[in-house]
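Journal club prep — side note

Before the paper discussion, L.F. wants everyone to see what a predicted structure for a comparable chain looks like in token form. Sequence:
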Amino acid sequence: MNGEQLPSHLSSILIVEDEPDICLALEDLLRHEGYTVHSVTTGREALHEAEQSQFGAVILDLGLPDLSGFAVLRGLEEFDPLLPVIVLTASAQDSHTVESLRRGAFAYITKPYNRDELKITLRQAIDARRLVLRMNRVEHALSGSEEQFRHVVQTAPDGIVLCDGDGKIVSWNTAAERLFGH
């Protein structure tokens, strides 16, 4: 994984794979990279895990014994629209690639997979998730700051007029309304 420490849920990866050998190889690879790994073999188990826990990313096989991988992808998106899902499957059909990406998959990798490609793709998925989460926190903080600013301006006893860069009035408080009669 290398680099800065991730919040625990971002370093937690859900593997949805029904082939025991592939699942074991993925677990070993990702644990060696410093990730916490949870593995399930069915789509229903994947949806249950996603409902119970937060993950940094999901590695999803499309060929599952109980549900279609596309149904699992849709269910994961319902639980967490920002959760990056990397489809890792034996199917090299263009239609599956396009459909996976159209339905919100972060990436599509075919088996047999290249370990380095998978590690890089996983890192990019988690980095993208981290940036989106950070952006959401900043947006929330700015919104709170803007609300506090508006409250201070509106309750100030002095008339305050706010203008844009062209000198056009964009807002004024109640004291300014009383002062100017508008």
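L.F.'s comment for the group: The first helix runs from residue 20 to 32. Keep this in mind when we get to the figures.
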